[in-house]
Predict the structure.
Amino acid sequence: MAITTLRRIFSGKTPVLLLLVLLLASLYLMSGATHNSALFSRLYSVLLGINALAIVLLVTLIGKHMYRLVRQYRQHVAGSRLTARLVIMFIVLAVTPVSVVYYFSLDFLQRGIDSWFDVRVEKALDDSLELSRTSLDVRMRELLRQTRQMTPELANTPDSMAALALNDIRTDSDATELTLFSANGRIIASSGTDTSSIVPARPDDATMLQLRQGSDYVGLDPIRDSGLHVRVAVRVPSPNPVGEARVLQALYPVTERMNTLANSVQAAYAQYKELAYLRKPLKYSFILTLSLVLLLSLLTAVWAAFFSARRLVAPITDLAEGTRAVAAGNYDKRLPLPGKDELGFLVRSFNEMTHKIALARDAAARSQEQAEAQHAYLEAVLVRLSSGVLTIDRDRVLHTSNRAADQILGVELGEFVGRSLDEVRSEHPHTRHFIDAITPHVSDGEQEWRDEIILFGAGGRQVLMCRGTRLPDVAGIRAGHVLVFDDITALIQAQRDAAWGEVARRLAHEIKNPLTPIQLSAERLRHKYLGKMNAKDADVLDRSTHTIVQQVEAMKEMVKAFSDYARMPQLDLEPIDLNAVINEVLDLYRGDRAVKYLVNLDAKMPRVEGDIGRLRQLLHNLIKNALEAMESRGDARLSVTTRCMEEASCRFVEIRVQDNGPGIPSEMLGQLFEPYVTTKPKGTGLGLAIVKKIVEEHGGLLWAENPNTGGALVVIRLPVLTSNSVDAEEDLTVALVNHKGNDDAAA
Amino acid sequence: MAFSTLASKNNNQQRTGSRRLTWLALLALCMLPLSPANALADAFRIDHAETTLESGVYHLNAEVSYRFSDDALEALRNGVPLTIQLDIQVFHHRWWWWDKDVASLVQRYQLQYHALTKRYIVRNLNSGGQHSYSTLGSALHALGDIEQLPILDKNLLAADTTYTVRARVHLDIESLPAPLRPLAYISSGWRLGSEWYTWPLQR
C-alpha cells in the first residue's frame, strides 16, 4: 500500500520538477558556498552530500531506465527501438555542448584562480609585515628599557609592599598592567588600569624559562578586544639576598594608529597567505562544484531524455499495440489521448476507426444472428412439414432434407448432406426410381414441374407426388432445385376404395332389383309350359330356364358379395384369441387330404380386439384363395404362422399365410387387394379386397409378396390393444373361465 | 493459491528489505567521512582525565597530547585557524536499555598563527578567552592542559546511581575553510582525533 502510494507520488511530473528545482537551488547554494560566505560555508558539506546523493539517485534511475530499455530492445517490444534512437539523440545533443562548456570552464577556472596570485603582491605583503615589525621593534626596545628601569625600585620592596609600589610605578609609566610574579609563577602583586580582568595573564612557560636563564623578554601580544600590546618581562632581584629573583611583567598598549595599521597589515597578510595556501584546494573545490553542476545537469538531461522519449513514444507504442489488437479482432480497445498535437489527432482517428469497425462487426453479428434465427425457424417448419422437402443443386448434390423426406424415402438423408444423390442411389437401391425420375427435370433446368413417382420400398409400393421448383442462385447453391413430395399411396388407395364401394353399391342396387323378376319369370315359364310341350321342346325349355335360374342365382350371389363389400357393417369388437379362431377355421378344411397344412402358432399370442365373424371371413377368404391357387398341384402345402412382434414401439400380431402355388404375377403385386383383380378364371375378384377391407377396419396392415422359397405370402399385422397387458389378459382368462363355469352350472 | 500469494509477498518483503538495506548502506557510506569516530585515533590522545567535586560542582581535569599532521601544521602556518572540539559526556549505564545521557558538553578551542607577532593564539570559543604563545609547543601544551572545567552540578545526579564520564577530542573539519573541507573529509591527514577516554564519576 505504502509502496504503491510512494510509487504513484514518484512517478508523476511534479516530483520531477521538484527534484530539478531542489537540485538547482542546492547547486546555487553550493556555488555561493565556494565563495566562502559564512552561511553557505556552513552548508557547504551538507550541500555537497546532497548533490552527491542526487547524482547517485539519478545514476540509479538512469541505470534502471537503461536496463529496462535494453531488455525491451532485446525482446523487440513495440516502440523500444524508437525510444532508444530518441534517447541516444537527446543524449548526444545534451552531452556535446556540456562537454565543450566543461572543457573551457575548467581552463578558465585554472587560469582565473592563478591570476589572483602575483609574486610582487606577495613580496609587498611580506615587506609590509616586516616593516610593521621593525617599526614596532623600536618601540619595544624603548619599553624594555623603561621596564628595566623599574626594577631597582621594586628590588628593594618586599612582597607585602609590592602592590603599592607597582601602583605608583604604573601611574608614572605608560603600562596598562604591571604584575610581579614569584620565580615559580605565583602572582605577588598586580596593578592594572583595566579592573575587569582580575587575574592577569601569566607569562607562558617558554618566557619563564627564558627569564630563568637570565635574559629578559619582550614581545608583541595580541590581546582580545584591546588590540596589540607589548608584553615585557624582566627579572627583579629579590630584596632578600638569598631569595630567588622575581619577575615583573608589564603590558604596554600600542598606539591607536599603530594598532590599526598593524592589524590591517596582519589581516591582509593572513588572508592572502591563507588564500595562497588554499589555491589548490580552491581549484579542486571549484572544479568539484563545476563537475557536480555539469554532471547533475547532464544526468538530469539524460534522465529527461528517457522521460521525454518515453512520453513521445508512448502514443506510438499504444498505436502499435492497438493495431495489433485490432488485427487480433479486439475492436473495443480505446487508446488514451496523448494531447492535441498530430499524434493526438492520429490516436483520435484510430479510436474512431476501431469504434466504427466495432459497430460494423456488431451489426454483422446481429444480422448473422437474425439469419440464424430465421434458419432455425425454417428448419423447425421443415421438420414439422408432413411433406418431404429436399434441396439439391444442379450437380444433384443434396443440401437440405427434412425428417418427412427421411420417412417417405426410408433413408437417413442427413448423412448424405453435401453428397451426391448418386451415392444415396447406390447405397439405398430402393430410392433408384425416385432419383431417376427427378434427374431429368433437374438437369433440364425446368422452372417448375410436377411428377408422380412410384417407389418400391420396404413398405411396399409407394406413390409419391413430387413438385420441383428451380431456385435462384443463392447461398452457394447454383441452379438448385427444391423438391417437395408427398406419399399419396394411402390417398390414392382411399380414392380407389371409395370408387369401388360406390360401384358395388350401385351394382347391388341397379342389378339386384331386376334379377328377382327375371328368375320368377323363368320359373313361371317352366311351370306353365314344360308339361305342355313335346319332349324335344320341353328339353330345350328345361335347359334354358334352368340356365336362366342358375345364372340369375349366380348373379344374385355376385350382387350379394358386392353389397357385402359395399356395406360397412358395424364391427362387433371383443377380445379374441386369434390362435383359437385360426384353428377353428382350419378344422373346416382339414378334410381335404390333398393339401398339407403346416400350422405354427405362437403360444404367447396376446389377445386382439376384433369382430370374430369378420376375422373368420378373412381367414376363409385367404385360405380359399390359397387353395384355389394350388389346385393344379399335387403337393399343395399351406402354412399358417402367427407371432407377436414389436417394432418401432408398436406391438402387433402377425399372421402369415403362405402357399406353394405359382405366386403372384409381378404386374399384379401392386393391385392385388383391389376389387376385380384376379388371376382366376372364375370368382368375383372381391375375396382379397374384402380381406384388405377387414384388416383395415381392424386398424391393421397387410401386404403380399413372393418369397424366395416360392409361392405367395400374405402378411397381416393387427395391432395389440395397448391396455392389453399380460395382467389384463390373465384377468380376462379368469373371467372367461368363470363365465364358462357358470354356463356349465346352468346346464 | 493462498500459498503462492504468501510466497510472493514474502519474496516482496525480502526484496524491499534488501533494497532498504542497500539504501542504508549507501547512506552510511555517504555519512562515513562526517563521523568524527572515524578520526585518526593516534593523532590526539587523552593521557589522563579525572573529575573532582568542588562545592557541589563536578570539574574536569585532563591532559591531552596533540600531534598534528603535517597537512594540518602547514595550514596552520599559512594562517588557517584550526578548531579542536572536546566532547564530554556523563551517562548512566543501563544494561536493559540504551545508556542514559545525563549531561553532554562540547568545548571548542581554536588554534591560530599570528604572523605579525609570530605567536600562536589559543582561543576558547566557549568563553572567548585567548592567550598567545611564542611557540607551537607551549600553545599545544596550554591547549592540552584542561584545568577545573566545570561540567555538572551535583544536584542533577541521583544519589544511588553510578555514572560514567567519557571524553574525546578531535579536529573539527566543518570549521575549516570550505575549499579545504572536501579534501579534509577524504584525506587521512585531516582526520585527527582521539578515542573515547572513559572513567567513572568520582562521588
